[in-house]
Design brief:
By secondary structure, the protein is of the alpha/beta class. Helix content is 37%, strand content 22%. Helix 2 packs across helix 4, helix 4 (135-150) crosses helix 15 and helix 8 runs antiparallel to helix 9. Bound molecules: zinc ion.
């Protein structure tokens, strides 16, 4: 062997060893297949309730098995299985879980231009329930699994695919069942799931949101008791009056502001891409002397931002009285209490009692399927990989976000899994037009589905491919 050949060989080998990323799949070749699987999944009516995720789960099982990927199904209810598949890595690192849910929220078919489970293609969009929540994530994860397997990508860690049921209606069939009964099947260092988004304004991508923490839902009951009597002789002890004052006091109370790692970075970064006026309001959030001005503004104009800063209380159900001429002896209100993840619940209830300041009104926790608290860190390889992927594919800033609503990631974070919520790009104008998640209709741009698959591939391979 000549020295020249030897040098070339050595150069080739070391170049191969240094390559961080496996060779890019030929994405234009894969777009038809992606769309075919996506539309097939959308055409199963998995409205939850009742769910009936079985046909979608069977479809995923067949597609994965046809590619030689072993699949396991785990079900509390036979019609509602969870699908798990694992590509083995060397074990050098802990696994990566890519998770999505196969059920969708209910539809009112009369509101739809195209039938909600037709997956009609029109004007560059696919229309169907589940297009952005969450069959986009199911299809993207499926394509990533298929390509990892086809290309024989060597992995430093296992990549686990989970298509869960019950996310929209009843987590006992989905994530709770998996976490409580089959945790070793999905245990991982990192998890990617729904809950994030890339926001387009006027057709231009402006920023990306990655969910890293969420508020915890509780119910608070306000129960007023008094003396029953004849409506013609008003009583000072009228339970409706006491309850009304308590509800008003709770609604007017400005709950304490508290930031965490995620919300601090969120407002800091949001300021860098906002108009000067808005930027000042976002920066003021970080200044204890000026934050209350921002809160007042947010309460009126940006309620989501107000809710991201405090534990919040929204009195949403009132149950009082039954006859015009009877003063009722009791009345109660149910308050939607969304706690900051680090909230001290008993202490917070005491604060509500202090604010209500009425011995005739009892304040207590009501029944609600609550969730454990947990926050994903921002200094991990996973967050860095997501940020880099967003920068490469969308060219915008990443905002770590705390969602005010609850997601299935809470159950996994409780088990020490660092979970990050991601999602494809959607037009901010689509929500008000009635095309968003949980809207009257739902749609996604086909081009954005494909971009999301490529982005997810890069994040997964950056985290899991052998280096
Ligand atoms: Zn969802």
């Amino acid at each position: 062997m000549s020295r020249l050949v030897l040098t070339i060989l050595i150069t080739l080998f070391s170049a191969g060893a240094l390559m961080a990323q496996p060779r890019e799949p030929d994405w234009s070749q894969l777009e038809d297949e992606t769309l075919r699987h996506f539309r097939a999944l959308l055409q199963f009516d998995t409205s939850d309730p009742p769910g009936r995720e079985r046909p979608a789960a069977d479809y995923l099982k067949h597609v994965l098995e046809d590619e030689g990927i072993a699949v396991e199904m785990f079900a509390l209810d036979d019609e509602r299985p969870n699908v798990v598949a694992r590509l083995k890595g060397s074990g050098a690192k802990e696994p990566l879980l890519i998770m999505a849910h196969t059920d969708v929220v209910n539809v009112d078919p009369d509101k739809w231009t195209f039938p909600p489970f037709s997956a009609t293609l029109d004007g560059g969009y696919v229309y169907a329930r589940g297009t952005v929540d969450d069959k986009d994530n199911v299809a993207a994860s499926l394509m990533v699994m298929l390509e990892l397997k086809r290309r024989g990508v060597e992995l430093d860690r296992d990549v686990i695919f989970l298509a869960e049921s019950g996310e929209e209606g009843n987590t006992t069939y989905g994530i709770e069942f998996m976490v409580n009964n089959h945790l070793p099947k999905i245990q991982a260092e990192f998890c990617l799931a729904e809950g994030g988004s890339v926001t387009r304004v006027g057709g231009r991508v402006e920023y990306a949101s990655v969910q890293t923490v969420e508020k915890i839902p509780y119910a608070v009951e306000l129960v007023a008791t008094g003396v029953a009597g004849h409506g013609s002789r008003p009583l000072q002890t009228n339970s409706v009056v006491h309850l009304s004052k308590a509800v008003a006091a709770v609604a007017d109370w400005r709950t304490p502001v508290r930031l965490n790692e995620t919300t601090s970075m969120y407002f800091e970064r949001l300021a860098t891409i906002s108009s000067p006026e808005a930027a000042e309001r976002y920066r003021n959030v970080l200044d204890p002397d000026r934050v209350s001005e921002s809160v007042e503004y947010f309460l009126e104009h940006e309620p989501r931002h107000a809710s991201m800063l405090t534990s919040s209380l929204s009195p949403n159900i009132i149950d009082a009285g039954y006859r015009i001429n009877i003063i009722p002896s009791d009345a109660n209100a149910t308050v939607d209490f969304r706690a900051l993840p680090d909230e001290d619940i008993p202490a917070f209830l005491n604060e509500i009692r202090r604010v209500v300041d009425d011995p005739a009104v009892e304040v207590k926790l009501g029944k609600r399927n609550t969730r454990p608290a947990g926050e994903a860190r921002l200094d991990t390889d996973a967050f860095r990989a997501i940020e880099a992927g967003i920068d490469e594919h969308y060219g915008v800033i990443t905002l770590p976000t705390m969602s005010t609503g609850a997601t299935d990631m809470a159950y996994l974070r409780d088990k020490g899994i660092q979970c990050y919520g991601i999602g494809p790009a959607t037009d901010v104008e689509d929500g008000p037009k009635g095309f968003g998640a949980h809207s009257d209709q739902e749609r996604i741009l086909v081009s954005e589905l494909h971009r999301f698959v490529r982005f997810k591939w890069d994040v997964v391979t950056e985290l899991a491919a052998a280096k």
